[in-house]
Specification:
With 421 residues, the chain is mostly helical. Helix content is 76%, strand content 0%. The longest helix has 45 residues.
């Protein structure tokens, strides 16, 4: 890592900022994809409706459309990055708290409006945090900083997916909702304490520059055909596991597990699996590089889906729940580390905010639109056949690696390693 020691590159305030902002970014998302489905299912909302509610996550897919606005305009307080962070976090705290006032059995329409707003401000928070992280990290700390961010992002799921689920087993759901909102203060306090990363005049001077140049550079870099192949790969690489985990909480509940069992056994197993996957993935990438990591981690990601196939056959069994959920998220963690590194390598430093927003938007298409159909598929074929379908859907992304990241490709190998931890 340049002239720095490993300790200097890891133990500094920038890494702490990556951790706290990663936690703040992940919390609203996991509220939407883990806690809200369980809340709705407890009120006997059908799976098809719950699956369709995944469509409210569309801002994560389209955030590149308004990222130039957040890049171009500076709010009159806190600076270009911190100002937008502050606004999005205040709105998230208010909206997440407001969910505690509604009953899904009788006020589903109002709930959909609120979770849609949460999705919008969460995606907007991601835009500015991604840009801030890129601006504060020196090149030789990009790998470590993004790994810390990704791990904190994953660990934030422990709040809505475990703590709040356990609280819901003993207290009204409103208490669980408020407990999740309180943890958003981690991000808000961070925003108030950190220094602004952008200097006056750094912002694009016209909307034309902010909107057109990032996309122009990307599509002209290696030609539009290669650009399209890359975007298609971002859609397909995590398609299978995105489908498999879309309605996992209702799946666990339908297997007979209580919210307390899900919040303790499943959540702890998933957290351990994701943590091991992220840490081991980051360390392995030092030797493997990005291309081979995409292959090896992709295989783990593919095979891990079969754990849910077994759980759907065995049914109510604590050990199988722990093994299946832990193994699934080991694959999720490995695949995510490789994909984030690939996106980072493919981003031009001059257009980080908008290009990274584009890449990450494309990558979550399966989680947003494809996952919306999962409820219908499950009700048509059952859980076992559904998870087999997820396994099959993961294969095209692996096959695309032949073109996107050939195993024996030496081109850019050193650059790959620099982006890894």
């Amino acid at each position: 890592m340049s002239n720095k020691t490993f300790k200097e590159a890891i133990l500094n305030k920038r890494m702490l900022i990556c951790i706290t902002t990663g936690f703040s970014s992940g919390l609203p998302l996991y509220l939407l994809i883990q806690f809200v489905p369980a809340w709705l299912r407890s009120a006997e909302v059908d799976l098809s409706t719950i699956g369709l509610i995944n469509l409210v996550l569309f801002p994560y897919t389209w955030k590149f459309l308004w990222s130039p606005v957040m890049d171009r305009f500076v709010l009159p307080f806190f600076g270009r990055r911190r100002g937008w962070m502050f606004v999005t976090q205040i709105m998230l705290i208010a909206l997440m708290s407001a969910l505690s006032l509604f009953n899904p059995a009788t006020q589903l329409s109002q709930i959909i409006l609120i979770v849609s707003a949460i999705s919008f401000f969460s995606a907007s928070q991601d835009i500015v945090i991604d840009a801030y992280r890129r601006e504060i990290l020196p090149d030789d700390e990009l790998g470590a900083g993004n790994a810390f961010y990704a791990q904190a992002y994953r660990l934030s799921s422990f709040i809505p997916g475990s703590l709040a689920m356990i609280l819901a087993g003993f207290f009204p759901w409103s208490v669980a909702h408020l407990s999740i909102a309180v943890f958003m203060l981690v991000g808000l306090v961070t925003t108030l304490l950190i220094k602004e990363s952008s200097k006056p005049g750094d912002e694009p001077q016209t909307m034309r520059i902010a909107v057109i140049e990032p996309f122009k550079e990307f599509f002209q870099r290696d030609g539009w055909q290669q650009a399209v192949w890359m975007l298609l790969f971002l859609v397909l690489y995590k398609l299978g596991d995105s489908m498999a985990t879309a309605l996992e909480t209702p799946f666990f509940m339908d297997m007979g597990f209580s919210t307390v069992e899900i919040g303790s056994i499943a959540k702890i197993s998933k957290t351990i699996g994701a943590t091991v996957g992220t840490v081991l993935g980051g360390l392995a990438m030092v030797k493997l590089g990005i291309n081979r990591s995409l292959w090896i981690f992709g295989v783990f990601q593919l095979v891990s889906i079969l754990g849910y196939v077994l759980l759907s056959v065995i049914g109510y069994n604590h050990l199988m729940l722990a093994i299946a959920s832990g193994f699934e998220y080991l694959g999720v963690g490995l695949g995510s580390v490789a994909l984030i590194a690939y996106m980072a390598k493919s981003t031009n430093k001059n257009f980080t905010a908008t290009q990274f927003a584009l890449f990450s938007s494309i990558a979550v298409i399966p989680r947003t639109f494809v996952s919306a159909t999962t409820g219908f598929i499950i009700e048509s074929v059952g859980y076992t056949q559904f998870f087999i379908i997820c396994f099959v859907c993961a294969l095209p992304g692996m096959l695309m690696l032949l073109k996107i990241a050939p195993w024996n490709s030496k081109q850019g190998e050193e650059a790959d390693k620099e982006q890894a931890i």
